[in-house]
# Entry
Amino acid sequence: MVDDLSAILPELALTALVLAVLTIDLFLRREDKWLLTPITVIGLGFVGYTCWTVWGVNQTVFAGFYRVDDLSVFFKVATVVIGILAALFAPSYLAQRKLPLGEFNVILLFSLSGMFVLASSSDLITLFIGLELMVMPAYLLAGFHKTDRYSNEGGLKYFLLGSFASAILLFGISWTYGLTHSTRLSEIGGLLTDGGAAGLIAIAMLTVGSTFKAAAVPFHYWTPDAYQGAPTPLTGFLSVGPKLGAFALLVRVFGDGLGLSGADWYGVMAVLAVLTMTGGNIVALAQTNVKRMLAYSSIAHTGYILAGLAAFAHATDPGVRTQGIEAILFYVLGYGVMNIAAFSVVGMLQRDPRRFGGLSAFAGLAGRAPVLAAAMAVLLLSLTGIPPTVGFFAKLYVLVATVDAGVAWLAVAIALNAALAAFYYLRVIVYMYMREPEADPAPIDRSPLTAFALALSVAGILLLGLFPDPIISFVRASAAGLL
Amino acid sequence: MGLQAYLIVSAMLFGIGMFGFLARRNAILMLISIELMLNAVNLSLVAFNAYDYYSPNDTGAIFALLVMAVAAAEATVGLALVIAIIRTRQTPEVDEYSDLKE
# Structure
């Protein structure tokens, strides 16, 4: 047993880091602002270290509002990894546009703290507070370039539709509370069986609200605009950070809360998964702007992850059930690293702020910057799901989970969609290696920090693709905390 | 009169807010509609709490207070974004915000 404050050591460390960065930013002269990046990254490294102190604690603290279990530790570690990459990728892009680095770091860290709270919530109240703490900084990140009309538009659309979804989710939470007389996730399990028609409405609102945040079709309309408008490396964060949070929410509500009545909501999740992966992929095929294409492809990835949740719901054997959750965890982490890196490669081709990262910017990249082109090729192959990358194992994990759970048709849908997705991912590779560059090619950002972060992500993707065992055992141990 | 009356009012408020969000094309009015939806939620939370004979604690009322705080923060973020976009576009009409297309 640990006391309440030791159990939330990672949250305390992260909050202290936010305040430290906020304060230090005030005292730094303009030419010293770059110091904020190492402070943020090292601070996040320390936060990641504190996560290990609560590994294996597995207890509920603060009178049942907060749950520190291995599942939450996994989400927190993944959050830290994504946060470090976001903090490394953004500075050079922001500097070229004269955007404030200190504010970016603070807003990013606030969003990460929301993801921490979300991952650990065992009560609908904590869940809602964590969700809002995560998405409100995300709205600001989408609109971060405040003199840029595209960023304004992306931020406002993200905000309006996101708050709309929050209100719907909240109405669902309110009715859940009214019907079950409790806001504890462990006590809302009877919602479907005892709630009658009102219970169905409540659960429908919970589903709509949470899949809205995860950008599932048909609740994805905000995604392409928000992602295209936001400053590119920040889009990378938006496409993986809040998505990780949304899946933490889905796992908490549907795994912890409604897990035992999985057979009742399995159908909805399976249909949403298929709609999402197919819808995202088909629209992505038609895109010529790589940033928008990656935005639609991130919708498709949501579909693959939702398939893991459907597998969890359909399976009856406990071992197979956890496999669905394991697939979600593995996919969320692997996808997080590869997607944030892919977006920042697009950002590297936007050193000239007037360039928008169209497909033609990638033409002949292999001749102009062979290493960058190779890195992008690895990222795209990983997003497609080709070995020996982490993307392959992520897809394989979901496939195995769905087949073992007895929903083979879902596995077939995933395989078909992966083939569909290969077309538009590989098209970028074709442009990079087989087309002549434009007459006036876009200048490339060669800042060492961005290059370092890119090297780190690519190395991670390849290493985990070749030796996935450590992560798989980490994922297994974490998912065991749920059931 | 009882819990049901409050829930009907709350559902109506929520419906009006939802309709307003979907029908209005002015960013600020859409923001107001969202606030209306959140207030509908608050009404239902407080009503559920007042008529909850099973558990003596005031979970619903406390939740409503927290929702108010979140709604205030949300309005702040929203208005900041609206001001930023009005500076670059000179209009609050969302139909005019259509630069982001393929």
Notes: The beta strands of chain A are 59-61, 66-68. The first strand of chain A starts at residue 59 and ends at 61. The mean pLDDT of chain A is 92. Residues 4-479 of chain A form one domain.
